[in-house]
Amino acid sequence: xxxxxxxxxxxxxxxxxxxxxxxxxxxxxxxxxxxxxxxxxxxxxxxxxxxxxxxxxxxxxxxxxxxxxxxxxxxxxxxxxxxxxxxxxxxxxxxxxxxxxxxxxxxxxxxxxxxxxxxxxxxxxxxxxxxxxxxxxxxxxxxxxxxxxxxxxxxxxxxxxxxxxxxxxxxxxxxxxxxxxxxxxxxxxxxxxxxxxxxxxxxxxxxxxxxxxxxxxxxxxxxxxxxxxxxxxxxxxxxxxxxxxxxxxxxxxxxxxxxxxxxxxxxxxxxxxxxxxxxxxxxxxxxxxxxxxxxxxxxxxxxxxxxxxxxxxxxxxxxxxxxxxxxxxxxxxxxxxxxxxxxxxxxxxxxxxxxxxx
Amino acid sequence: xxxxxxxxxxxxxxxxxxxxxxxxxxxxxxxxxxxxxxxxxxxxxxxxxxxxxxxxxxxxxxxxxxxxxxxxxxxxxxxxxxxxxxxxxxxxxxxxxxxxxxxxxxxxxxxxxxxxxxxxxxxxxxxxxxxxxxxxxxxxxxxxxxxxxxxxxxxxxxxxxxxxxxxxxxxxxxxxxxxxxxxxxxxxxxxxxxxxxxxxxxxxxxxxxxxxxxxxxxxxxxxxxxxxxxxxxxxxxxxxxxxxxxxxxxxxxxxxxxxxxxxxxxxxxxxxxxxxxxxxxxxxxxxxxxxxxxxxxxxxxxxxxxxxxxxxxxxxxxxxxxxxxxxxxxxxxxxxxxxxxxxxxxxxxxxxxxxxxx
Lengths: 358, 358
Fold this sequence. Notes:
Chain A is of the alpha/beta class. Helices cover 44% and strands 18% of the residues of chain A. Chain A contains 13 helices and 14 strands.
């Protein structure tokens, strides 16, 4: 018999009532029934993103929304700054270079958060910076970057001339990212993390400032054309066929997050779960890898990480390993989305058994 | 109480056992369990596409695979021919133009199939044509284009210099498109038609000839990068997180199509369903709109089409209307995928009741 719980930073566990919504008979996407679902989803996504702007839904993984963030708002040759402190920071650089942007990277040692002052210096060094790209949480290292502080610096030093683009794939719905309040210009996420859904949906929102950049963008985009989607989605439709079942599931999970538990309570729960697990980890004499750990996942330094992961899996707890240069050196235990204190006691004790043998 | 059957050309009905697969607990995509599912899906997709090549799966609607067909194989300024006989032919032109290709359109009156000879003439008129784009079935008009004949012309007149790109979104799994046998270079489809799944997946395959073009392509692509996906998918993984639940559903539907009923039997069933419905339609004195009707859907000329559609919906049969200039002039009844002779008798009689009043 196989039985396991996913503690991976995507996909994360999906609640039974969301799974149930996925298995309902299919409905047509150009129907009043779908429009009502989609309007409800749209309103709740605005609350999730803390924005008054449209939140656009794509049928794609989160990487699709990252590409949309580049292709819709910039021009060939634009100078941009990428904060690269892990695998997903690297991805920003790759996407920007694919589209011919001129990238200045702030390289951050894996496990560390960027210093806001380093962003300030990079902005001063490069004159005409059109965008700053970062992760809210760098999922490969478990680090939370200081988004609020960086947003402040960009707004104070660059006014409306520079867009602040935040990959919120393991941040939105996990901890506070106040898009409108802090002045984040482009914020995006994916379905399979805090949103407690299977993978297959991504969401992205753009500030008024970013929408002005959009009018000038000369990069090619068709499937990920935000302007076209915005027009359609305001009418409760999508430009191309949406992933109907996943959107039905999304309505269910947003009801759970936004209406029932409440976003701030979800944030508090994630903090609490992180604290419970980290106490257990430190009690085992292990070190947390992230210097500024995000509330959505805990990264742990372990010499024989792959062996421990395998043992944990045999006991039913599916955790992630390190990527690239961290492979075999860390394990990553996620606790964003559908997790309770009991889950932390369970996974912490599985880790203990695998480390100590009892 | 609401109860209805979708007879729309996407989404189409989803079998209960596929719906059930969608609601199973989520598994991780970098696991042996997922790899086994994905390897099985890959093998069956090759049979579905009638190819020895890789069939790449994306988390996107079919339009994503259409964009991939352009962005991965061509260069800026390439001369291409687009057969445009409806809304989806138009889409090829839009995507090609978005990427800076030089498009020569063969405009075909809506409702008609392209004459192979017109493709031949267009190839002769334009010297250095890199690609010919077409639909296997133009879903907006219900027309089947003569793919086999056009493939023959391209191979005979252009050898390896021109790619034949077929949007098979309402063709693959509906009627015979022998990719390798006929010399189709790029073939693609989507999940929500003959594959009997909800929308959210697209699939694309490329000939050896096309893979050589891929090496030279200078157009930007990241999420829809076929080369990167091919490398990952051969290992049973994907470059970015796949739509795990839909891929589990895909395994189920491919088992039904490829293993259980058999592809040729599915084709024969679609032909039979088309014939049953069309006999009923003509018995009512109505005209089939498509001059060369495809087996996947039946388009019917009706003056008060929107009124009839509404009435049919009230009786539980959800059919599609005309798009753009055909709005209000035709209805489209799809019968690709999970439909039986009994379904045709049902929808045909619903139409009869709405037309004749009894």
